[in-house]
């Protein structure tokens, strides 16, 4: 079967998906907001799969967010390099009119040294997520709830951690007068919260919180030619602070859910969100917060947003969340221990069985760049699992050069002017 890379049919997402010897497997644009999972052991090709999907969404006019946890996603701004291996793969897939090309990329960075600065305010994050970030007990979270409520009632915006410290001390000093209205605030709990702020500050939270705060609508941009911008968060250094990383992405997902209007059934997603290293979000997560994630993932698709979790094993994702991920791409797994063997069986049984092969055996046999895949069809039903190979990306598979990174930043001059200079707050209550 010969097909063009930029197929015009409604069922194609510009090559996103996988190809096999007998047919091409394609993620339908109108089903892309039903969310998905990309799973597999390290070194099996998840990053290439991520690039192929992201550039496909971009070509289709859907903006994308993704975190670069290893430093190699930035290559999406560069055209790929020709090689005998690439030519062999292109010929195998029967792709016509092939060309190497980069994507419109915007680089963001919480530490503000290799991208557009990313900041949010403490008030934006809210007490529930902040409590999770700080690892507070239920009693301590109750005190933090009171502190935020007092700040809201007094019309005080908590910009950064200095504001939060000042507000904690203020509420402690006026605890008696607030007790009958809000509840008891113990100095022991306040002390515990103040101590919990120390490691967050050491991990860079003092840089992360501040103004000007990020406006997520800046991530919904398309180029004049209609391509969706790919927003890449430099997370290589951020991964040294996994709690900050996980809470920022959870905040972003919740913010999208809270602010976007209902969109109904769209022909293509309004925005696509890739959550890499997804297990960091769910490690030791309280039940209440898991319920919040389930609610957001379940309902955000009606606002035109597709969410794709990337992790090593489906077992890293809670069952309640996993049930909402309809498009499944599973790279190879390895089973050297009883726990790993159980994970392989669980992954295999999550697919609709294919009578042609055994999914459990196939998962152990898959090589780099091979996947088991089950995507939603036009009726919204999951297809029978298929065994396939990943299409080659048109962009570079390596990290971008310093010159290309500089060009990408230069193309984002307006955003650098908007977010580049932190606003200092001189007066505190």
Report helical residue fraction: 25-40%
Please give the largest β-sheet.
Answer: 12 strands, mixed
Strand fraction equals: 5-15%
The residue ranges in which pLDDT falls below 50 over 5 or more consecutive positions are: 1-21
Shape, per Cα inertia axes: globular
Integer-rounded radius of gyration: 23 Å
Order of helices and strands: EEEEHEHEEEHHHHHHEHEHHEHEHHEEHH
Q: Return the structural class.
A: alpha/beta
Lateral arrangement of strands in the main beta sheet: 3-2-14-13-12-4-11-10-5-9-7-8
Termini distance?
Answer: 69 Å
**Strand segment count:** 14
Mean pLDDT: 87
**Helix segment tally:** 16
How would you describe this structure to a colleague?
By secondary structure, the chain is an alpha/beta fold. It contains 16 helices and 14 strands. The chain has helices at 46-59, 84-93, 122-134, 138-153, 161-173, 175-182, 187-202, 205-208, 242-259, 279-282, 287-300, 319-322, 338-349, 359-365, 402-410, 413-419; strands at 3-4, 17-19, 24-26, 36-39, 64-68, 95-96, 105-109, 116-117, 230-234, 271-275, 305-311, 327-330, 370-374, 386-390. The strands form 2 sheets. It has a 12-stranded mixed β-sheet. Strands 1-6 form a two-stranded parallel sheet. A hairpin with a 4-residue loop joins strand 2 (17-19) and strand 3. Helix 3 runs antiparallel to helix 4 (138-153) and helix 13 crosses helix 14. The longest helix has 18 residues, at 242-259. The protein starts with a strand and ends in a 10-residue tail after the last helix. Residues 1-21 have low confidence and may be disordered.
């Amino acid at each position: 079967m010969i097909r063009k890379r930029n197929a015009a049919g409604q069922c194609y997402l510009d090559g996103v998906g996988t190809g096999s010897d007998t047919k091409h497997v394609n993620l339908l644009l109108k089903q892309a907001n039903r969310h998905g999972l990309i799973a597999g052991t390290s070194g099996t090709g998840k990053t290439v799969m991520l690039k192929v999907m992201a550039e496909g969404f971009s070509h289709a006019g859907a903006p994308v967010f993704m975190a670069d946890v290893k430093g190699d996603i930035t290559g999406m701004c560069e055209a790929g390099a020709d090689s005998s291996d690439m030519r062999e793969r292109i010929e195998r897939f029967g792709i016509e009119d092939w060309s190497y090309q980069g994507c419109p990329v915007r680089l963001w960075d919480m530490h503000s040294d290799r991208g557009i600065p990313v900041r949010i305010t403490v008030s934006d994050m809210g007490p529930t997520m902040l409590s999770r970030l700080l690892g507070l007990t239920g009693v301590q979270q109750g005190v933090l709830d009171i502190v935020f409520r007092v700040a809201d009632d007094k019309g005080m915006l908590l910009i950064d951690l200095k504001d939060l410290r000042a507000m904690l001390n203020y509420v402690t000093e006026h605890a008696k007068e607030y007790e009958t209205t809000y509840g008891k605030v113990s100095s022991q709990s306040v002390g515990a919260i103040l101590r919990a702020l120390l490691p967050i500050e050491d991990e860079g939270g003092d840089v992360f919180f501040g103004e000007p705060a990020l406006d997520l609508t800046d991530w919904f941009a398309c180029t004049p030619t209609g391509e969706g911008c790919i927003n890449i968060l430099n997370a290589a250094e951020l991964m040294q602070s996994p709690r900050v990383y996980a809470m920022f992405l959870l905040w972003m997902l919740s913010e999208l859910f809270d602010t976007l209007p209902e969109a109904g059934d769209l022909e293509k997603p309004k925005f696509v969100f890739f959550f890499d290293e997804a297990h960091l979000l769910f490690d030791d997560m309280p039940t209440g917060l898991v319920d919040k994630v389930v609610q957001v993932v379940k309902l955000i698709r009606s606002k035109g947003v597709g969410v794709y979790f990337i992790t090593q094993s489906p077992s890293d994702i809670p069952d309640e969340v996993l049930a909402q991920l309809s498009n499944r791409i599973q790279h190879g797994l390895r089973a050297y221990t009883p726990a790993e063997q159980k994970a392989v069986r669980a992954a295999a049984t999550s697919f609709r069985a294919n009578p042609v092969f055994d999914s459990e055996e196939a998962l152990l046999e898959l090589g780099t760049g091979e996947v088991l895949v089950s995507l939603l069809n036009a009726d919204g039903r999951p297809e029978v699992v298929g065994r396939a190979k990943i299409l080659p990306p048109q962009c570079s598979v390596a990290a971008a050069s310093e010159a290309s990174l500089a060009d990408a930043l230069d193309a984002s001059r307006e955003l650098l002017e908007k977010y580049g200079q932190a606003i200092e707050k001189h007066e505190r209550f």
